[in-house]
Amino acid sequence: MLQVSVAEYQERLRKLQQLLAEKQIDLLILERNSDLYYYSGSVAPLYVFVPNHGEMVAVTRKAGTRFVQDAPWVKLELFYNTADLKEIIRKYHLNEAVKIGFALENTAYVTVNRLLQLFNQAQPVDLTWDLHYLRMIKSATELEILRQAGKIMAQLPAVIKENFKPGMTELELSALIENFMRLNGYCGLSRCRRNEIEMIPGVSSAGENALAGTKFDGICAGIGLSPAVPYGASTKVIERGEPVILDYAFNFNGYHLDQTRMFCWGQPTETVTQAFKAMLQVEELIISELKPGQSWSVPYEKALQLVDRLGFSKGFMGLGSEKVRFVGHGVGLELDEPPYLAPKMDFPLAAQMVVAVEPKVALEGVGVIGNEDTLIINESGCELLTTAPSEMIIID
Fold this sequence. Notes:
By secondary structure, this protein is of the alpha+beta class. It contains eleven helices and 17 strands. Helix 8 (about 155-165) crosses helix 9 (about 170-185) and helix 10 packs antiparallel against helix 11 (about 295-310).
């Protein structure tokens, strides 16, 4: 399996320390798993201390042996109590740090408070956006990992055609898909940027079940098996002619590939067919606007204009209060990274960004219809990573 090289980790650290120096941040403390992995190659540490110059230091109470195996190039210190941690900070001359960076969007208040007490009058600074921004441009290795993921997920239509049986429930169909994913490298979870957004492998949702409300910032999440985990497949039997949306995030070697395809047992209605054709047309337009220098908001605005001409404005990206305001998002170590194809996002796209484009429409009494592909933005156009055929998967 492809692995990021030590040289690449060193380059990531160089860019991060350059940012810290420019912002006059003395020290950055990483504790979110995606950040730990991006800079050290392991999620085993409890924290990673990154000064604005010199070596970074990982600290952990346990899993030290695992960390040494995963990332032998990173300095590791074990601690058992607060006194030990304070001594480690003193040992590496970090105790005089005045400005300390955190990903405050995700780091608990009590954690920040506890860590600040180890320093002399230090002040916290939020670097959440900066950390995400540094990850937007993907390296050649990261892109190759995603290409491999795309080749695996390209087999999904064939898996469904070979194994679907009339009378299957959403859950049985999802289990079929998840089994295929798991046996082909799916890591077992999907990481999200937002706290309290817990992600299952994906959504297999038939008909009106796809219209269920969700606090997840997406158009459909399914009903799930319990209000305790209201996401994904239910025990509903898939009916003949019913549109089924299959929205799955394939976490391969830590990197997420986001793909949606439509499935139908029997022929879909004309309403579903026309909506699906319209969403493919909208997706084509969005992709044509993904080019270096383009504002993130432009593909969104142009998509809305086309949707209006096609007559699908009412349910585009959700009905009523369920409507979401984006048509695509970045993917990487987390499922919902920048760039965001959304209004007021006036930042430039750049080559080697990876974006999931997902125009979908909610139809009252019918379900959610759409498609989603993950792409690499290049200077000469986009490279499609999700190469599974976009046409609806139909079993008659």
